[in-house]
Specification:
By secondary structure, this protein is mostly helical. About 85% of the residues lie in helices and about 0% in strands. Belongs to the exbB/tolQ family.
């Protein structure tokens, strides 16, 4: 059975193009989501901090938004009447916080997988390209040194592309982890302050 190394080599390039497209999509989607979520969290945190009355009297344009901080605050406000002690409030705010953190990390595993897989795909493409070049040499001899050099150059391009995709993904992945930490801090402060505000009321 003969293996078509040319097709396999080409397939690795298409896989890397797909990884790059998917990484760009996840990066754009998460970037927009994190910017909006962090903005809403800051606004709600400021409103809860500066509001002296009941939490249900907060501006409706803030509490009724379809954003993660507003949903977390609504969950907190709905469950607060069932709490009977300060410890219950702490447990409630911790539970709401943990549920929001898992949603903040949505799709980051895709980017993490691409960062890990892209260099391996590039290395696989290089190996297949070199095998293809040596197979051609074995069949036709070294009649065209330029063709051999071009084949090896194309093979090495796969590694370069894989590393490039991984580096781009790694930069955004680290940035998104930092965003998740910042938003988590805002949400933690928001939930704790709303719990304290409710307890004082």
């Amino acid at each position: 059975m003969t293996i078509d190394y040319t097709s396999l080599h080409t397939a690795t390039f298409y896989l890397m193009y797909a990884c790059l497209a998917l990484a760009i999509f996840v990066c754009v989607e998460r970037l927009i989501y994190y910017v909006q979520t962090q903005k809403h969290a800051r606004e709600l945190e400021g409103a809860v901090t500066g509001h002296a009355g009941e939490l249900h009297l907060l501006p409706r344009e803030l509490t009724e938004r379809d954003s993660l901080p507003a949903q977390a605050l609504r969950t907190m406000m709905a469950d607060i009447p069932n709490t009977r002690s300060p410890e219950d409030l702490q447990h409630l705010s911790s539970a709401v916080f943990l549920s929001t953190k898992s949603r903040l990390q949505k799709n980051l595993w895709v980017l993490d997988t691409i960062v890990t897989a892209a260099p391996l795909l590039g290395l696989l493409g290089t190996i297949l390209g070199i095998i293809e070049t040596f197979t051609t040499l074995a069949e036709h001899g070294i009649s065209d040194p330029k063709g051999v050099s071009a084949g090896i150059g194309t093979a090495l391009l796969a590694t370069a592309m894989g590393i490039t995709v991984a580096l781009i993904g790694l930069v955004f992945l680290n940035h998104f982890h930092d965003r998740v930490d910042r938003i988590s801090e805002h949400l933690k402060v928001l939930l704790l302050r709303s719990a304290i505000r409710r307890e004082a009321a």
